[in-house]
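CORE FACILITY INTAKE
Project code: CF-77B
Contact: R.S. (postdoc)
Sample description: multi-component assembly, two entities in total
Requested service: structural model of the whole complex
Turnaround: standard
Below are the sequence entries exactly as provided by the requester. Do not edit them.
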Amino acid sequence: MAIKELLNRFNAVVTDPYSEARSRKEQGQKVIGWLPTDVPEELIHAAGAFPVGSLGSCSKIRLADTHLQVWVCSLMRGSLEMGLRGDLDFLDGLIIPQTCDTTRAMVGIWRQTSLIPYIDSFMMPKQVKRSSAREYLIGELTRLKSNLEKVTGNLITNESLGTSIKLFNENRQLLRRMFEIHADHPGLISSREVYTVIKAAMYMDKVKHNGILQDLIQAMKQKAARSIDKSNPKVRLVISGGVWEPPEIMDLIEEAGGVVVGDDMLTGMRYLSPDADEKRDPLEALADRQLNKIPFAGFDNQNYERRRFLHNLVRHTEAAGLIFLHLKFCEPENYDYNDMREALNSAGIPNLRLETEVGNPSLGQIRTRLEAFIEMIGGDPIE
Amino acid sequence: MYVAGIDIGSIYSKAIILKDNQVVGSLVKRTGGEIKVASQKLIEEVLMPLGLQAADLRAAVATGYGRISVPFAQKQVTEISCFGRGIGHLFPYVRTVIDIGGQDSKGIKIDDQGSVDDFVMNDKCAAGTGRFLEVMANALEVKLEDMGLLALLSNSPEEIGITCTVFAESQVISLVAKGRPKVDIIAGIHQAIAERIVSMVKMIRIEERIAITGGGAKNIGLVRELEKKLGSKVIVPEEPQLIGAYGAALFAQDLARNE
């Protein structure tokens, strides 16, 4: 199948994200949703339920404002709006991870306003390098596991969890493979298409996603082998932040002459890496996967790991600069920003911060900033 | 060889015509209405005294927020690069440009060629922009162009908070109601705007010398207040509003030479 047709299938999923989840529900399967980020989907899957992400991509906020202060980010606001509108009433459960003050407090609002029968909070250790973090996390995963068993009526065995881990690892490996091909041959598919494939994985059945993804990788490889012109005039960029929303921002980056070749986004690399160890006890493997994820503002950064990570990422991907996509009112990102900017500046890496809102596509000023940034790092604006 | 630089701002549109490096024509005009039509009128009007038409130009570069809607321009360059280029050409020793436009204000760090090293721009908010001054002038029933001079007449400026144009406006109205002298209120407004702009530009580490451009640079009260906050004498070009168009014209000249 041609690349375009394969991409259309992922695009259709992202346009109508809950059709698969709804049809699972109609067939009698339990459906458990999750909010960003880091909820272990493998546990949901191993309990025989269908895991589905809720990324709050909702533009008109009317109901959520009654329950939230102005300084709540558009990601959590959009998700709650969908909940209040009844868009997520088909869910048998919703897991809300605690990554910041807002997500911590959202759980209570959801419990009081939603018809979803099971709403749980997943409390990850903030200080991932503490020696107690692993033991604590295994305990928390065990709690989540037994709650999921109660909700679904299915026991999660080491065997079933092992099988789920294998399937999800395969998905992550394939996504990383696709990303590598894209980074080596930018332009085969657009930056937005690359990230749409990743986002689709959060809504789709993983077996189905893996199947189409394998075909896409084949098609990309063939196209890469055919194309003789290796020179790509696009400016290579890394993006850093929470979510790449609104999606039009990816189009703007490309229209301004850039291409995204690396990231640390929740709806990007943080979703794809690392794998869980298939040879270990499965709960321990999930805990280790969580603790070994790439740095993220929501969790402890005492050793300035993220500074080094971003610096290395830019060097490794041969990017000419880095763009922070910070959600308005995202406290963890905004507090860390100065540190990250200082680190990049002292390494001589040009960087730009854009403030974004989920569901707000008024991007005129963002376009000017992006174009100016690319004119700045791409050399002469006239060439 | 004639080339044009066109800067379509949110309130004013500006044009510069260069002939062999020399400015031979310039025009500032309210943008108003549809940008495509406005930019056509602008170029016709600036070229008329020269006996030329748009077709006679070797190259035209458009900048400003309306840059994508200038049909006769071959290339669009952001105002950030254009302000850098324009100031870099006129004042090669300037390292920081503060541009105060109608809808946004920016800080731009440049090298001795006028190439941009870093920049910062205000977010979707009118506080700290020309629009803010316009709203305040209306609230005080004072002409916009008189605001700057009036600010200089005050000995005890009022404290005005400037987190938001709407809040600041109601604060100003209540100060007027209390019978506070207009000059003190106006001086307070200028202090607040200058504070807002300087704290934003500090993000890119201000280096001397500093130039002020855009319509805001024509306001003497604001310029003096900025100098106080920056602790440095600033450079104000003769036609601060035309610097973006001038930079665009210099890029147009490059474009014509590259062909």
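Facility notes:
- Chain A has a mean pLDDT of 94.
- Chain A touches chain B at residues 350, 355, 362, 364-365, 368-369, 371-373, 375-376, 380-383 (CB under 8 Å).
Invoice: internal transfer
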